[in-house]
């Protein structure tokens, strides 16, 4: 067994999962010898890093992997983290992705504020935060030279603070901000967005946000990916049918709309006449609590006429089979879509079978766990179809191909670090 | 027209003939064949595989020659957002007999399958070793696989601490 290279041993350990049932086995292997211990760290480190780190794991992992750890998730509510542990992360010279979840007004805030400027962050996200005021975190990002992707899902970000974030960091490429409130001078934000040099993707929570920033985003031709959440039907109409909106969408390749209120069937839906005209649109995502037949007819027309659309995501918990059948007509006629993501609890999964059996262009179909669990027999049939069709990947909601790619990339770095660790031992 | 059999030279200088179909089950040999299209048909050197092990590989290829090509499926995450482990069950009775060999031979076949890039055989060997490890203590694993214990007491204490942390989490 001494002849076995580390990578092969790692492949053997992949038959043991990193959940509770097999974790004991993996740790047992780690107690065999120093080589196996290193491999077991490889097997478990991704879980530990991409999930949550508590104090003990921090102390175990960081001394050995501070130079190779590239991403960390800190779940402040679930983990027993001390400020001292967060300070340890300052040693991580390659930490490019930091995801902080469930942070409230805690003792950890100063440590986070100390950490952010010290590491070469490329992606920073703050999720489910009750942090108020959010100012210290926002200011800690000021002038960060490597920061490209920022997602702040926190309450009550003022227009002024939002403007300041952009003005102090001119290299941000992708920005997602939740719950901007109109406190401050919105004209500064509008002009900042309109002329921002590097922004290519902007996702905003529409609720409470004044119109001008959205329209400014549409005028900035560098922004090719636009997401709007928490919008009502009236807002959609206003955005797309006002002078500033509709005809500025020619350059948009990714459009994500999250509609929160029921669409009134009596009102005209603004998309049908516009989306087929957008020659660049390749990704369309529509989330909402109610899908009317009218919307489905619109989407069917889009599918039938668009040759640029590659990806369609439809998420709606009251999306009925009759409406889905209308959409399927569009999907059958469409010749460009390769990725289909549907989450709709009321849809009869069996309706998908003829499409999957006859469609040669689909490469990826994502279905929610709820849909899959509802009808296991049909689900098994669809799984079989995916097995037969080598080009088709059938994924659940969390089936993240990128994650697998990341693990593969990280292995090389981690192996080097382990080799150095062995030399020291 | 391409010849129906391929000559390969093993690490112990044996020249062995194998059918093109079996040769093409190895991505490594397949690539070599594609690279040498139009060139003189010399024996393909396999410096990392002995004749004894290659014969085992050919046995396996013969039994599985009509199997569909393996498809690498994307691993799914379960609801806890953790990767599911690969299934380590060996269902084929012939395969069960095939892996009933000395550990030394198993490791050699695994190394050969990795070098030759025969996916099905590689997975089979990994599964077998994974099954061999199941339920064993560190001492039993060291004894079974002839591994020396080079961990310090400090290392072991750190591992015990980590065990406690994991147990509390789950």
TrEMBL record, chain A:
Family annotation (InterPro entries): F-box-like_dom_sf, F-box_dom, LRR_dom_sf
Pfam families listed in its UniProt record: F-box-like
Source organism, top-level taxon: Eukaryota
Domain F-box: 1-41
UniProt-recorded name of the protein: F-box domain-containing protein
Gene3D superfamilies: 1.20.1280.50, Ribonuclease Inhibitor
From TrEMBL, chain B:
Listed SUPFAM superfamilies: POZ domain, Skp1 dimerisation domain-like
Record GO cellular component, one term: cytoplasmic SCF ubiquitin ligase complex
InterPro entries per the UniProt record, alphabetical: SKP1, SKP1-like, SKP1-like_dim_sf, SKP1/BTB/POZ_sf, Skp1_comp_dimer, Skp1_comp_POZ
Any one Gene Ontology BP term: ubiquitin-dependent protein catabolic process
Keywords per UniProt: Hydroxylation, Kinase, Transferase, Ubl conjugation pathway
Pfam families: Skp1 (PF01466), Skp1_POZ (PF03931)
Record domain SKP1 component dimerisation: where: 119-161
SKP1 component POZ domain location: 5-66
GO MF terms, alphabetically ordered: cullin family protein binding; F-box domain binding; identical protein binding; kinase activity; WD40-repeat domain binding
Keyword ATP-binding: no
Recorded family membership: Belongs to the SKP1 family.
Protein name from the UniProt record: S-phase kinase-associated protein 1
């Amino acid at each position: 067994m001494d002849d076995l290279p580390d990578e092969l041993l790692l492949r053997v350990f992949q038959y043991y999962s990193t959940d509770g049932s097999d974790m004991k086995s993996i740790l047992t292997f780690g107690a065999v010898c120093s080589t196996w211990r290193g491999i077991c760290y490889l097997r478990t480190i991704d879980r530990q890093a991409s999930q949550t780190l508590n104090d003990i794991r921090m102390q175990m992992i960081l001394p050995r992997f501070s130079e190779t750890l590239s991403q960390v998730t800190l779940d402040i509510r679930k983990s027993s983290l001390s400020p001292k542990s967060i300070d340890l992360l300052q040693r991580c010279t390659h930490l490019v992705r930091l995801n902080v979840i469930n942070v409230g007004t805690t003792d950890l805030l100063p440590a986070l504020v100390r950490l952010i400027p010290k590491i070469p962050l490329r992606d920073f996200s703050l999720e489910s935060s009750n942090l108020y005021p959010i100012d210290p975190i926002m200011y800690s990002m000021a002038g960060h030279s490597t920061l490209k992707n920022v997602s702040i899902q926190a309450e009550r970000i003022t227009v002024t603070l939002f403007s300041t974030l952009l003005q102090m960091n001119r290299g941000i490429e992708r920005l997602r901000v939740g719950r901007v409130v109109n406190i401050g001078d919105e004209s500064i934000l509008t002009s900042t967005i309109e002329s921002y040099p590097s922004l290519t993707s902007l996702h905003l929570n529409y609720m409470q946000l004044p119109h001008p920033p959205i329209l400014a985003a549409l005028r900035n031709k560098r922004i090719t990916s636009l997401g709007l959440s928490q919008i009502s039907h009236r807002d959609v109409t206003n955005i797309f049918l006002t002078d500033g909106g509709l005809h500025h969408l020619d350059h948009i390749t990714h459009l994500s709309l999250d509609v929160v209120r029921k669409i009134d069937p009596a009102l005209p839906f603004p998309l049908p006449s516009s989306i087929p005209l957008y020659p660049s649109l390749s990704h369309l995502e529509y989330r909402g609590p109610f899908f009317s037949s009218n919307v489905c007819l619109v989407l069917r027309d889009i599918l039938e006429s668009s040759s640029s659309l590659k990806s369609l995501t439809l998420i709606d918990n009251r999306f009925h089979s009759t409406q889905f059948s209308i959409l399927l007509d569009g999907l059958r006629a469409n010749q460009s879509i390769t990725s289909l993501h549907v989450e709709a609890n009321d849809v009869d999964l069996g309706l998908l079978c003829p499409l999957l059996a006859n469609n040669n262009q689909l490469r990826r179909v994502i279905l929610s766990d709820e849909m899959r669990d509802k009808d296991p027999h049909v689900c098994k049939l669809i799984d079989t179809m995916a097995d037969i069709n080598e080009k088709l990947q059938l994924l659940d909601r969390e089936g993240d191909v990128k994650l697998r790619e990341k693990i593969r990339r990280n292995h090389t770095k981690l192996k080097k670090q382990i080799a150095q660790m062995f030399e020291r031992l | 027209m391409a010849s129906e059999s391929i000559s390969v030279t093993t690490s112990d200088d044996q020249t062995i003939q194998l059918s093109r179909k079996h040769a093409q089950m190895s991505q490594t040999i397949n690539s070599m064949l594609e690279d040498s299209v139009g060139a003189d048909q010399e024996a393909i050197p396999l410096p990392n595989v002995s004749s004894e092990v290659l014969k085992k590989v050919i046995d396996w290829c013969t039994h599985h020659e009509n199997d569909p090509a393996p498809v690498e499926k994307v691993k799914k995450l379960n609801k806890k957002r953790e990767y599911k482990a690969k299934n380590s069950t060996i269902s084929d009775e012939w395969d069960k007999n095939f892996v009933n060999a000395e550990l030394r031979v198993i490791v050699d076949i695994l190394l050969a399958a990795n070098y030759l890039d025969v996916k099905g055989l590689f997975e089979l060997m990994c599964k077998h070793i994974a099954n061999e490890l199941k339920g064993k203590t560190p001492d039993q694993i060291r004894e079974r696989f002839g591994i020396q214990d080079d961990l310090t007491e400090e290392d072991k204490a750190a591992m015990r601490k980590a065990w406690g942390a994991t147990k509390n989490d789950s």
